[in-house]
# Entry
Amino acid sequence: AEVVPGTAPEAVKALQEESFVGEAGDPEDMETAVRGITIIQPRTVLHFAEAAPEMIVALLRILRSNSVSVKPMLRNIRVIASSEDCPSAVFQRPLHKIMTVPGGEGVDLEAGDVADESFALYSKLLQLGKKSPESDSFVDMLGSTYKDYLPSDAKVLAFTACDAITSVDEYLDIFAAPVRVPLAEEMVWPMRE
# Structure
């Protein structure tokens, strides 16, 4: 997601923590647990959330409601990757970090292969999650020891600006809206007895 200019990083972090904690259930219950990492940079927020599909939809609805509120903090929210066939979570708990990832270069997603770039980002975050221990020191070491696993602010901004990547509204329309299929019988008039 893109951070609306003038929004304090601490306010964005509070929204993320409230969203994760507000929706999360028992951390040991895979049906209600919400795990993952949120990286808040000056212009962007990157979420990597691990939860049951219903929990992900609830989190996305919270983010979308903020983006259409009177004083939004986020805009251009995109879903870069989504997978429901993960056997287990790679992060131990929800982690949130305000930081700037070194490397100012973005990526030209319009000229490149969006699927390859998206999968590369997803893969690096999976690798990062597998390295995350239970300790709080992991979050403190993100900027030094694990920076190669994280995308720069410019790279995340390129993802938010790419129309080829699913917006949060499109994602929710596909995966969270009721399915409506008109049946041939419903189109017959007058009604048969």
In short: Helices lie at 9-23, 53-67, 114-131, 137-140, 153-161, 168-175.
